[in-house]
Write a structure and sequence with these properties.
Length: about 400
């Protein structure tokens, strides 16, 4: 037992002595290297003929997604999706970012993504994207595509709510005193974006009440419009719409409910991250129920129609956006003839997700229907609205 303890103490002393010797050798080697570095002659002799450039650092996408910008900065976080040449990227420190796709140099994902490739269609896999190529890896293929063919992508297995974008706007104007008046405007924009499909829903409603002279408020404006469409992107620019629908109600223009149901195709002319311009349209069926009609007239009219839509979005600055929507509908005279809905909006960022929303709205019905009291609504309605919007 004494012998074993003696042996252990001897081994421990030997190990400590070895460590001390190695440490001293490292110190002497370091001091020698520093002395050589200070010597001009040493520097000249040690300088290689050709300097070897350090290799660029590229992180491994294991737990996070990585994005390198054209400025060579790296961002770590999670990809939310790329659509319309805009990458949504969630960073722990910088929060949710919208990055122009042209500013992305390298992208590496750690999750399977649903990808839409021009000419190929929908596919999925782990993404590695460089300046000019898209490398897609999954269980059954390992392929490379030209980056210019990439239309969109979104991480697979995302929560449903992550696919949605919502913007709600509310404007209220209250007047009391010599004039009692209440004006209310609400807008709701909802969008669901996947790798190859897009669902859009827009609502706008206006209500105005004014003093009737006896202390009560009389309604002078009450109109509501809902537009919804489902788009499928076949290529980067061409899409078709299997179904679109519009519901419109405005008793003050003698329309109790106007229902439009149709299908069509569309084409995106400009899409460069800052500007988006697209046109779409197709055939539709329109049914109009009137609020009241002259004696002997039909209370509703149905007609085939042609629908044309223009959508224009322009990012004026980082905090200022211009949005224009122009919808045209052409049906028979009994259903209103030519009608259009124009809305021009300027969004100015206040702070974070809050924006100031200013909109000009112009609704026109070329052939309004006479009401039961013999009055005929004027063809044009104009409105300017102000509101605060919140974007999710």
């Amino acid at each position: 037992m004494v012998l074993a303890e003696s042996t252990n103490e001897t081994d421990s002393s030997a190990a400590e002595a070895k460590d001390a010797a190695e440490s001293q050798a490292i110190i002497e080697q370091t001091m020698g290297a520093e002395a050589d570095a200070k010597s001009p002659a040493s520097n000249e002799s040690a300088k290689p003929d050709t300097e070897e450039k350090p290799k660029a650092w590229i992180p491994s996408a294991v737990k996070y997604d990585w994005v390198q910008l054209t400025s060579n900065e790296w961002l770590k976080g999670n990809i939310k999706g790329m659509y319309k040449d805009s990458l949504e990227f969630d960073s722990d420190k910088l929060d949710l970012l919208d990055i122009d796709w042209k500013d992305v140099k390298i992208l590496r994902s750690h999750r399977v993504n649903n990808v839409n490739i021009d000419g190929i269609g929908a596919t999925s896999g782990i993404l590695e994207i460089t300046d000019d190529s898209v490398h897609l890896i999954n269980d059954y293929e390992d392929k490379e595509y030209n980056r210019s063919k990439l239309i969109s992508f979104a991480p697979g297995g995302k929560r449903e709510r992550d696919l949605w974008g919502v913007k709600a706007t509310l404007g209220i104007d209250i007047k009391q005193g010599n004039t009692d008046q209440l004006d209310y405007t609400a807008k709701l924009n909802m969008k669901r974006r996947a790798s190859t499909t897009r669902f859009l829903l827009d609502y706008i409603g206006n209500i105005s009440k004014t003093n009737g002279g006896d202390g009560s408020l009389i309604e002078t404006i009450n109109n509501h419009r809902v537009n919804a469409s489902y788009d499928y992107y076949k290529t980067r620019h061409f899409f078709y719409t299997p179904v679109f629908v519009e519901l419109y109600s405005d008793p003050f223009t003698n329309i109790d409910l106007k229902t439009t149901l149709g299908a069509g195709v569309g084409y995106t002319v400009i899409d460069d991250g800052r500007t988006e311009l697209s046109f779409s349209g197709g055939p539709a069926f329109v049914k109009t129920d009137f609020d009241s009609v002259a004696e002997g007239e039909n209370t509703s009219e149905s007609t085939p129609a042609a629908v044309f839509k223009t959508s224009y979005d322009l990012e004026l600055t980082k905090a200022l956006d211009f949005i224009a929507r122009y919808n045209i509908q052409v049906g028979n005279q009994a259903s209103g003839g030519y009608t259009h809905h124009i809305i021009l909006t300027v969004d100015s960022e206040i702070i974070g997700a809050l924006d100031l929303d200013v909109s000009f709205i112009w609704d026109r019905t070329s052939n309004p229907t006479e009401a039961s009291d013999g009055t005929t609504p004027v063809p044009d309605d104009y409105r300017v609205t102000f509101g605060i919007s919140y974007t999710y």
